[in-house]
Amino acid sequence: MDEENVLNIRNLQFCWPSGQRDVLDLEALSVDVGERVFLQGQSGAGKTTLLGLIAGINHSGRGQIEVLGRSMSAMRQRQRDQFRADHIGFIFQLFNLVPYLSVLDNVTLACRFSKSRRQRAEQQSGSLNEEARRLLDHLCLDVSALAHKPAAELSVGQQQRVAAARALIGSPELLIADEPTSALDADAAQVFLDLLMSECEAAGSSVLFVSHDVSLQAHFDRTVQLARINRAAMPVQEGGRL
Amino acid sequence: MNLSLLCSLTLQSMRNRKFAVILTMLSIAMSVFLLLSAEAMRKEARQSFANTISGTDLIVGARSGSVQLLLYSVFRIGNATNNIDWKSYQEITAHPAVEWAIPVSLGDSHKGYRVMGTTRDYFAHYRFGDQRHLDFEQGRAFDGVYEAVIGAEVARSLGYTVGTELTLSHGLQDTHFARHEDKPFRLVGILAPTGTPVDRTIHVSLQGIEALHIDWQSGVRSSNTVDAEEALDLDLQPKQITAFMLGLKSKMAVFRLQRAINEYKKEPLLAILPGIALSELWQLVGGAEKALLVIVFFVLLNSLVGMMSVILTGLNERRREIAILRSLGGRPSQVFVLLTMESFLFAALGCLAGLLFYFVAMVLAQPLLLSFGLYIAPLVLSVTQLWMLAGIILLSLIIGSVPGYRAYRSSLADGMSIKL
User: What is the pTM of this model?
Assistant: First the structure.
């Protein structure tokens, strides 16, 4: 076990229960503490599946995934869920807010599943809502106007900032982003990434950023091509899952 | 992640789908309301049926079936096969165990309502419901030969008041030949509603019945008529009656006297215990009540299935929401609870609203129900009704676990790959 690694994958193979063949077959992938990795891959390269495995939502019997030095496969499903709540922040492509909850409720939702993240958020700003406001403010969202609006009423760009704040609240050790900029135009995507990266730095979170968009890789320490490391990659046909 | 969070998420999600949620809840509330009302009516109808007559120990009539005797003597349905000789009546009522007796003479009618000849003992001893006596709403008991007392429903539907004159008809047909036009009766009293066949009865004295038929032979008027005044001077002592009711001094004597009457030598008689005959009759007519409950139960099932379909329809949209919760560390079991809790809330709030409807309706309908002789305590639930409510909640949890289970399965299978 390497203390320097946030993420360490060895000889991972995965196939969906209904699938005939492996979707993923990785020899090695790792993210160091504080490192920002850009994982680049076309659709069908198995990106989302890989993220599900790292987060412990899906589960593979073969190979080894260690997050923060702990083996995901050694944990029970319940432990994996709790581990994810405590240590991993997630940003999705789109539609990643609960539409009927207010902006503040959406952000603080992440802390409701995790005591440790809640404590860290409270240490940071005194209260959960204060921390949520602080993050939203840093991500250039007009908090005073939007805090109590339902998420469904926000623009896509605003939603993405709220999602980022939710992923960052309570300073999780690892931030995983799955195509978070694909709904934004190129300029907005660059601005969003700048803000996201500076917040990650402030929170001390390592970043695993997944996108097909090569133009974003300048923001990262290192780029990994999923197609190169995934021996089971079958581009085009297998769009994500099913 | 605790229950209160799941609860608040469920509530907010439901608030977000207000319209469908309110409609579904209304339909559940209506079924709950129907079920509770049907049960209350059923119970009260049964109760009031069983209470049609009380305090009477034996009913005696010509030998036939016990249900038939009960039907014509108490419910005024159908006719007697034969009459009882007045002498037999006198002999039996002279028995030392007999406390009181009410003779009943049937056969005439007025505008479809049966006329019953009896004595003033009827108003003193006849009891119904929970040992309630007959009360007068207006006027008094009959005294003279040509005086009548009517039940509440007769008074209401015919609009009669004390002082109204009425012409009785022979038999049940109100045809010209059958009318006893020569001997009109004057209305002297109206009884308070009882919810029993008494409400639909016109009561006159036995002498009145006798006077009506003094110039009749075998169902037709004879040629030498006797007018009303002349009849009063004649002997109006009845020769026959249709049936009679007995109250005994001691309940211990009931079976002994019943056997004695059934074995009466001079004419074939039948004595029945009203309670037993009533329950026999209820077995015949009580089936409808169960059918009603079954129908209402299916109405309820229908709204619960409706609830399930509302939740299932929403489930596809909510997969996103579920995926978000999963990504934040929510467990599949929590997803299950989230969805099942929704059904529970549907049912619980539906039940509450249904209860409210029920209480309001019962308070509002109280006067109407009383006029049918049904008394339903408006703000009280019976044990059966409480079990029904518990059953509805349980059933909703079972039905609601279907969407819960589907969400659970898909949250395991989908992982985070929800892309809408």
Answer: 0.69
